[in-house]
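Structure ticket #2291
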Amino acid sequence: MKTQKIVISKILFLIFGLIIVLGCDREETLQPKSIFEIEEESAAELDVYLKENFRVPYGTNVVYKFVDQYVNPRFKVVPTKLDVVKPSLELIKKLWIDPYIVASDDGEDFLKKYFPAEIILLGDPIVNADGTRTGGIAEGGVRITLADLNGYAPDDKPWTTNLLRLAHHEFAHIIDQNFIFDVQSFYDISGEDYTSPNTWTTISDSEAIARGMVTAYGSQSVAEDFAELVSLIITMDPSDFEAQYLTLNNDCGSSSNSEFCLRQNEGKKRIKEKYDIVVKYFKEDVRIDLLKVRDEFLTNVN
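Resolution: structure written out below.
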């Protein structure tokens, strides 16, 4: 009996020891690793350029590789071609960043504080579920998505102007989100004539002017009306802007549609009211000379 107890004790001891050894081995294989390990910084020429020109001075992360977390799964998108990323961003620097630096009372400090924390680049315009195409998105005052970069054509002034018009439109949203624009001032002018996000496609740009908005897209809300107006003030030659949106037709009586001609005249008067409100808002609330932004943009784009 004693011998049997000794044998059983030895067996239990061996089993216990084996459990300890196996337990230690298992513990070694499950040593925790930090989820915050910093990846080695890229030394690629493009990534160095992004760091030196966007991340360091403005704290802006430019995302040019396709990452699905940055795009609503309802949208159809195309990634940006690698060879258009840097030249497109050089245009953004020359035609967006530099004009604001010159026109701000605070110089570069303004952009260091309010330039978007993230810029997402996409190759083609975003195709929405309803078939419409979106060229840009501003989100929460910290992120701007710009699309259609694969159409990069530096000698094509309309393409360049359109890309930067989108950038200035989306940045106008960020400015509005940080320096709260007086929405009521626009409602007092055009309140009953706004459409909605689902119905703006049913009217023409000419009809939008008659309602006191510069584009049909701007008719869907005060926020879009504001951003469209800002972007066109900046990117259009002032004489062209005046001719298209401010100059009244003094001969509506001989027009084939005199009633619509008169409506457009009334709409242009409304646009002039909004124009003055926006320029004053930028000057007094944002400490930006919007017309100087325009002049710098036009100088640099030509």
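Closing remark: Confidence is low (pLDDT under 50) at residues 2-38.
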